[in-house]
Amino acid sequence: MLVESAQHYRRPPRVSPVLSQRQQGQPAEVRELAWRAQHRLHHRYKRLKARQLNENKAIIAMARELGAFIWELQNKTRIPMPPLPAA
User: Fold this and answer.
1) Does the reported pTM lie above 0.85?
2) Domain range for residue 37?
3) Residue 63 DSSP SS3
């Protein structure tokens, strides 16, 4: 899942109207962290590709950093995780 999500950082960061609508009601700290992650991960992808790193290796590096941002989001914001749906 992280690898598939990391592939989106190949393109420059932007906030589409759909994303803007989804972000309404979210804490400012969460939106700020998400925006910082978008910029950092895209910039890192560009740097890795400029070094002519293999595409797959660059995407895996993005996935690792994305995992770190998710960890930071959970630990710094202390937002409770939603309950799992009943099986």
Assistant:
1) no
2) 2-77
3) helix
